[in-house]
Amino acid sequence: GAVVSQHPSWVICKSGTSVKIECRSLDFQATTMFWYRQFPKQSLMLMATSNEGSKATYEQGVEKDKFLINHASLTLSTLTVTSAHPEDSSFYICSAGKGGNTQYFGPGTRLTVL
Amino acid sequence: GESVGLHLPTLSVQEGDNSIINCAYSNSASDYFIWYKQESGKGPQFIIDIRSNMDKRQGQRVTVLLNKTVKHLSLQIAATQPGDSAVYFCAENAYSGGGADGLTFGKGTHLIIQP
Q1: Is A54 on the interface with B (CB under 8 A)?
Q2: Contact B36, B48 (CB under 8 A)
Q3: What is the mean pLDDT of chain A?
């Protein structure tokens, strides 16, 4: 199998605080993980590519200082939303690849910033 | 930038009928295409994929067709069931020397199966 988990599944925080979301590949090693964001009734948008042991690559328009990504091991990548504001409220989804094109998606994390 | 788009945002189909969901893509460098199903509040679920060296691929009750000439992708679902109700996304990427790129998703089609 190829199972990807995310934690937490949902989080509510106050404006100005930071929130960390974890993405884990449970039964395989992922050299690359991807972070997507999905606003209500919209499609998934790629935010960044997370490579184990190196800096993440961010898509155009995504602030790297606001969305901190750490890929410390072959099974874990974290996304930290710093100084979160209501406009950051969204569904954050990660995916992991074993190599090749196929990506396995996590269940998503619903972030609500008050 | 280049994107993957869909023709229809909502598709309503009678239970038991076949459904076809269409998708247009613009990146001629894309060599891998995937269809995902997403239920409310959940992550995308893989349905079927196809590589650019193929024009048709079949799975269980699903068929994906790829027309590279007009950059068009379609998903056919046979004998639809209530559990098929969801939003369907096409996605594409290209495999570069350094590994797979992130996916570019289409806008999504909400498939509604009516009893």
Answers
A1: no
A2: no
A3: 93
